[in-house]
């Protein structure tokens, strides 16, 4: 975890959605240092509430649920929703309708800062020999990436019209260690994920900012020049795993679309989920 001597801005009540997911489970114990009360939500089992926690079940697609969930919330870390390529119906419910419900609830309840878990799959159809910055057009690699591009556009709308600030995190591959050669470029350590989220929560002014979520990897396809005001600095790197990963995967099939495009295997999944 981060250096305990750091004194981040503390929110009276911080909401973490998707708290039962892989990244939610990682962030849940770490975010308590940034709030007096951490409200955690998911449709899956969240176990018992820890000291300083509130547990609240909510369906993103239910507008009434979201109004209740956002009550008295000062800031949101939004990890909830469908996180892989799926058929359109669940993506529509959670990642499209659910996003509108979240932002409408934030507007009506007075929540002014949202950290949105977007995805690198927003730009998945850029090639692996290109470097992408946050001002370049999106190139989603499926319905999932398309839904995250919608989420970023929605965040821009709510900033422009109602002053709700958002940092959209185009998260790369956040695991304990990189699993393959693609992840040498996209890897985001759990500690760097925490640093990224805390920076997004505590930067003084963000408007709507898009930032790629990656560690300080030697190989990189993403340029965060336009997000330097967030103050995120990665301290980990995939390079310590490079020899092991390359030994496991010494050859790459350059005719494989997953090796050609940044989205990896996602570019080969039919967008209807079949």
Task: Summarize the structure in words.
The protein is 32% helix and 16% strand. The protein is α/β, with parallel strands linked by helices. The protein has a single domain, classed as 3-Layer(aba) Sandwich (Rossmann fold), CATH 3.40.50.
Précis, in short:
By secondary structure, the chain is an alpha/beta fold. The chain has helices spanning 22-31, 63-69, 88-109, 143-162, 183-186, 190-202, 242-248, 257-260; strands at 11-17, 35-41, 53-55, 75-78, 113-119, 132-133, 165-171, 208-213, 222-223.
The strands making up the biggest β-sheet line up spatially as: 3-2-1-4-5-7-8
Low-pLDDT sequence parts: 1-7
Mean pLDDT: 94
Helix fraction by DSSP (H/I, runs of at least 4): 25-40%
CATH H-level superfamily: NAD(P)-binding Rossmann-like Domain
Q: How do the helices and strands follow one another from N- to C-terminus?
A: EHEEHEHEEHEHHEEHH
- Alpha carbon gap, first and last residue: 39 Å
* Total domain count: 1
């Amino acid at each position: 975890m981060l250096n305990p001597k750091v004194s981040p801005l503390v929110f009276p009540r911080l909401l973490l959605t998707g708290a039962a997911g892989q990244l939610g489970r990682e962030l849940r114990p770490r975010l308590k240092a940034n709030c007096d009360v951490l409200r955690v939500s998911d449709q899956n089992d969240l176990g018992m509430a820890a000291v300083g926690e509130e547990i609240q079940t909510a369906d993103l697609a239910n507008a009434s649920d979201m109004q209740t969930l956002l009550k008295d919330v000062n800031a949101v870390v939004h990890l909830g929703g469908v996180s892989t390529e799926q058929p359109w119906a669940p993506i529509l419910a959670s990642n499209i309708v659910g996003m509108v419900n979240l932002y409408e609830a934030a507007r009506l309840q007075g929540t002014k800062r949202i950290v949105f878990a977007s995805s690198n799959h927003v730009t998945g159809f850029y090639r692996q020999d290109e470097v992408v910055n946050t001002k370049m057009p999106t190139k989603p690699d499926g319905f999932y990436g398309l839904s995250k591009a919608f989420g970023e556009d929605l965040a821009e709308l709510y900033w422009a019209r109602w002053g709700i600030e958002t940092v959209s995190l185009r998260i790369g591959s956040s695991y304990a260690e990189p699993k393959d050669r693609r992840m040498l470029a996209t890897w985001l350590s759990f500690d760097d994920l925490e640093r990224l989220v805390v920076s997004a929560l505590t930067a003084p002014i963000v408007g709507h900012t898009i930032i790629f979520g990656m560690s300080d990897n030697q190989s990189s396809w993403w340029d965060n020049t336009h997000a330097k005001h967030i103050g995120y600095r990665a301290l980990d790197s995939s390079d310590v795993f490079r020899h092991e990963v390359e030994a496991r995967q010494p050859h790459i099939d350059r005719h494989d679309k997953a090796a050609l495009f940044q989205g990896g295997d996602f570019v080969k999944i039919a967008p209807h989920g079949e």
